[in-house]
Amino acid sequence: MTLNTTPVLSPIGDQSVDESTTLTFTATATDAEVPPQSLTFSLDAGAPPGATIDSLTGEFSWTPTTIGTFTVTVRVTDDGTPSLDDFETITITVVSLGNDADVSIVKSGELITSGGTTGVIDVRVATGTDDAEEDDDEDVSLNSSDLDLNEEEYVGMRFNGIEIPDGATITNAYVQFTTEDDEDTGYAKVKIFAQDSDNPQTFTNQDENISSRPTTSASVSWIIPDWIGEGTAGAPQQTPDITALIQEVVDRNGWNSGNSIAIIVEEDSGSADRDAISYETNPNKAPLLHIEYEIPSEQSIINYTLEIDNNGPDAATNVIVSDVLPSQVTGQSVSPSPECTLSGNAVTCDFSSLPAGSDETITITTLVNSGVSGVISNTATVSADESDPNPSNNESTKNITIEESANNPPTAKASATPNPADEGVIVTLLSTGSSDSDGTIISYAWTAPTGIILSDVTASSPTFTAPLVESPGETLVFSLVVTDDEGASSDPDTVSVGINDVSSVQTVQQQKQAIIDELKNLKSSAESQQTVKRIDRAVQDVKKSLDQKYWIDENTLDPKQGKHSIHEEEKAVKRLMNIIKQDKESESFLNFIQEIIDQITLIDKTFAENAISQAQAANTDGKFTKLIQKAVDNFEKGLDYEDDGKYDKAIHSYEKAWTIVAVLNILDSLDSQISEFTTAAIKSELIDDLVEESSEESSEESSEESSEESSEESSEESSEESSEESSEESSEESSEESSEESSEESSEESSEESSEEEKTEDENVDLKSQNDVIIDVNTAPVIVLNGTNPQIITLDGDYTELNATATDLEDGDISGSIVINSTAVNTAILGNYTVTYNVSDSLALPAEEQIRTVQVVNDAMIDVVEEKTDDTTEKSTDDTTEKSTDDTTEKSTEEEKTDDTTEKSTEERKD
Question: Is the whole model's pTM more than 0.90, yes or no?
Answer without folding.
Answer: no
